[in-house]
Sequence to fold (268 residues):
Amino acid sequence: MDSKTNQAIGVFDSGIGGLTVVRALMERLPFENIIYFGDTARVPYGVKSVETINRYAMQITEFLLKKDVKLLIVACNTMAAVAYRAIRDLSPVPVLEVIEASAKLAVSETRSKAIGVIGTPATINSNAYARAIHQLDRDAKVFSQACPLFVPLVEEGWLDHEATKLVAEEYLKPVMAEQIDTLVLGCTHYPLLKPLFQDIVGANVRLIDSAEAMAEIAADLIHRENLGNTSRQSPDYLFYVSDVPYRFQTIGERFLGRTLTRVEMVRL
Ligand code: DGL
Fold:
């Protein structure tokens, strides 16, 4: 047996949000060991500069590579948008990121070729989604909107709150005016707002969940490269954070949909 197969998948994020990707991975790849790093001391990344995001991303990559992971998954859309190339250049193991995964799914789902993308300011300003979508379909039209208020609203647990609804209506107005039929949820936190978004955009607009898209792409790669864990024992899940774990643990359970054990604080 190739010893690589039981090595963990390294998933990293700016904080808690990447747990939506872990959740999708746990469902799609139930025998894979996972090591997660959430940079809770320095979150949010979405409003930081490209230079800072790159520097942080390099530190996290080095940390996870030392844990001997077999695959790296950049769960954070902001890091994927800004730092993917640098991460890939540093990594001897394959690196997957959420943006390409979501772009592929969006292009395969849209009929009208009018695609909306929402994300943090850093993600939207990087133009990474528009580039990824245009690479797959030059005729697609991409309408983007930065939504900085969603991250704190989701972390506050206001998933079905009047205030969140008002904010969402305001942010989505310009993209909806473009007659989009597909909306990419380009941030780790947005899958938790899916029911609220669907209410606002209506049943005819398909929501692209970047966490689910990521899990599909990861499953494909693992299958193709024969990297799947052959052990059928229950896998190990280890979570590292850069600040005291309390907040990560309490809020994180909402993102993960299950209890979070084995959370450890580390300094990078
Ligand atoms: N994880 C980030 C993302 O997906 C959201 C939180 C942050 O701004 O750091 O873009």
Q: What stands out?
A: The chain has a mean pLDDT of 95. Residues 13-15, 17, 43-46, 76-78, 119-120, 123, 151, 187-189 surround D-glutamic acid (CB under 6 Å). Residues 3-97+212-265 form a domain with the Rossmann fold fold (CATH 3.40.50.1860). The CA atoms of residues 5 and 229 lie 5 Å apart.
